[in-house]
Amino acid sequence: MGATGFQPGRIVLLVALTALALIGFASGDPGILSGANLYSMAVFAVEIGIIAFGQTLVICGGDGGIDLSVGAIAALAQVLMGLALQAGIYWPVAILIAVATGTLMGVINGILVTRYRIEPIITTLATMFVFDGLGLVLTGGINIDLTTMPQSFLGLGQGSVLGLPFQLLCVYLPALLILIALQHRTHFGRSLYLVGTNTLSARLTGIRVDRLRGWTYVIAGLLSGLAGAIGAARLGTASPTADEEANLISIAIVVLGGSSIFGGDGSVVGTAVATVLIGVVNYGLSYNDFNPIYQAGVMGIILIAAVLIENLAGGRRWAALPFFTGRGPTAIPRKESSG
Amino acid sequence: MRHPCRASNCSDFGRESDAGVSLPVVGRAIGYDDFHPLRPFGPPPPGGGRKAAATPFFPPLPGEGASRSEAGGVHQQTICDSATLEGWGYDGIQASANRPTQSSQAKGSRMSFQAGARPDQIARPAAARGWLERAVRFAKGREGVLLITLFLLVIVISIGSHGAFWAPVNLNNLMVSAAVTAIPAIGMTLVILTGGIDVSIGSMLGLVAAIGGKFFEAGWSIPVVAPLFCLIGAAFGLVNAAIIIGGRVPPVVATLGTLSIFRMSVFLVLGANWITMIPPELTVIFISDRVWFLPVASVMALVLMAGFAFFLRSFRLGRHIYAIGNNEEAARLAGIPVGRIKLYAYTLLGMFTGIAALLTLGQSPLVQTSTGTGFELGVIAAVVLGGTELSGGRGTILGTLLGTLIVELVNDGVVLMHIQPFWGGVLLGGIILLSIGINQRWPGRGSKAAE
């Protein structure tokens, strides 16, 4: 494709790692390669994959951009959707409520970060608390049962089309295509790379840096709301504690997918491929009876290892092999850009 | 190797500005203070300095040349003089070039160097101020606002809890839990002052408690295990530091990773069991024993806070911490061992987390897999509430102490006033956002936004 931030070498590497992970798990128990298991992997990976798309854009915006509240947004969105469904609201409207809630939460994050100049880490850490707390307050800490809802609603998370999960074919892939177009074929996406790489030159070029960064949080919120709705439909429950680890896993996916944590690099394509890898690892771990805490721990190891390898090897020994890193040594900043 | 000029040797180095004085320079200056033994009458009026720089072909007016050369001396890293740009006719570029450094702070401060400092902003040496003036300045500053908030909170909770707040048991619990938060908050203040953050200390506390608990289970005595708590904590802090400094991983990402890795390790250590064989003497030593009317834990916290407040004010290493947070590159160029000092900060935070783990076991003699979950948020909230800026270089231990008390009062108040516990998170998050938002809009003295 040759577009900015698109790293073909990284994608080859990720595909190889995914194959390796599959072979590793299969050597323990070949049953994991059965059609039903691969189908479940796809089902589980879709939600975190959608959240990771938004995270990609936020991190791409640079200046410490990061969204720790994505999981809390997903939980709050599905709680509000669940309450709406319980109140007898027509289900497409309820899904719209979830998406609108996510968007609104994204707007709040965006305003706090760009208008009030609160650091993204602390903004989203605080809003994570607020959104999580609101979800708990609204439900009283109890899951909302949605199994009695119409089949057409539950099909959002449980249906299948052409032998593939409905949400993969009809939500995830369209979202991927739209975001590829947004990132590589629109003014917005291309400006975002400049904003993430060099805020000052972006500003001097006439790009409205704050507005652009604000929109990335809105998109992240919208996608998190959508993921929350799908998750609730899949499980038939709306839980205020859903997706607690989503922030960690989505950041791990984004970093693994080749985005620079300092912004201005990476692509949703890399994120999508990394989602497959993380999906396989996560599913393989739960297939082998590791509890969610261990899964999160492995995600943490992967996250740190990815950045470490990037920093330690990317700039030096591998510099001669852009195939593996997708960029030269100059792309690695020595320090965080100070606002 | 140290830089030959030893600029960092100066007591003035990296010190936070005492008043919101607008500097006649673009970019960030380090080591600028309104009071200096060599400059007893405060900074030069910005207008004067500007004129002198704008006409470089003419000799400076009497008095101006001296003050300018002093302001632009070794201690000040001036990227570009706005007045020079103006003199060159780069008005438009200067305005936009100025934006990224300034606009990430408060709006409106962008033009302050052109408007010049208001007369009341031009600071005089502390000795020349009246007590009333100083009191008003304190009340308008960050610590003053926190103190007033604290009083209001106490009043609200006293009324809301129908006096249950003043029960000795409650006050005692409050003091102990404040100490548990305050001790790591000192370390967190240092880490945030250098421009970093550590979100892993909740899991770290759980892990230290689990490992230390295993020692207690094996029958080791308190005098042996207590130092081990500090050492284990310091070791985990060192792990974070190694990843962050050695591997150049951004602090948020690194500690978000170790947050889950430490939690996983708690499971590995504990299995599916609880540790309940914590010696009851621990509670006696740290909680029940008193110095005058304060529990030992609170005394430890107060002593450590006083010590580190003094350290940050008066020790060269303490000034270096501020210098690193203000401008890491400049600090490096000035010969400050940036990496080593950051390593000290993270390790110290780990050690203090170990102490907090010990005190937690004194509070409730039980280690389970969820011990310490969410602990980091209270600590970060306390530090941030206390006015320490996340971008580094600004903040005080006194602010952290007041921030800790506010956080603990809110937690206590939620329980006493029979509010649903779910509201705790909402309140804490809301308070953090509100206080930072207020700080950005109406910056207190010594804050970057005021420059």
Fold and architecture overview:
The complex is a heterodimer of chains A (339) and B (451). With 339 residues, chain A is an all-alpha fold. Chain A has a single domain (8-313), classed as ABC transporter involved in vitamin B12 uptake, BtuC (Orthogonal Bundle), CATH 1.10.3470. Chain A is built from 14 helices and 4 strands. In chain A, the strands form 2 sheets. A two-stranded antiparallel sheet of chain A has the order 1-4. In chain A, strands 2-3 form a two-stranded antiparallel sheet. The longest helix of chain A has 27 residues, at 209-235. The radius of gyration of chain A is 19 Å and the shape is globular. With 451 residues, chain B is an all-alpha fold. Chain B has helices at residues 46-54, 64-71, 82-87, 91-103, 112-115, 131-140, 142-160, 168-193, 201-217, 222-246, 251-270, 281-288, 296-314, 316-326, 328-333, 338-363, 375-385, 397-416, 423-441, and strands at residues 290-291, 294-295. Chain B has a two-stranded antiparallel ribbon. In chain B, helix 6 packs across helix 7 and helix 12 crosses helix 16 (338-363). Chain B is globular and about 60 Å long. Chain B starts with 45 loop residues before the first helix and ends in a 10-residue tail after the last helix. At the A-B interface, helix 5, helix 9, helix 11 and helix 13 of A face helix 4, helix 11, helix 17 and helix 19 of B.
Low-confidence stretches of chain B: 1-117, 445-451
CATH topology of the largest domain in chain B: ABC transporter involved in vitamin B12 uptake, BtuC
Taking all residues together, what is the mean pLDDT of chain B? Answer: 74
**Spatial arrangement of strands, main beta sheet of chain A:** 1-4
Named at the architecture level, the CATH assignment of chain A is Orthogonal Bundle
Query: What does the overall shape of chain A look like?
Result: globular
Low-confidence spans of chain A: pLDDT under 50, at least 5 residues?
A: 316-339
Net shape of chain B: globular
Largest chain-chain contact? Answer: A-B, 58 and 55 residues
Q: What name does the CATH topology of chain A carry?
A: ABC transporter involved in vitamin B12 uptake, BtuC
Beta-strand proportion of chain A:
under 5%
Number of strands of chain B: 2
* Number of DSSP helical runs of chain A: 14
Number of beta-strand segments of chain A: 4
Average pLDDT score of chain A: 83
Name of the CATH class of chain A: Mainly Alpha
The quaternary state of the protein chains shown equals: heterodimer
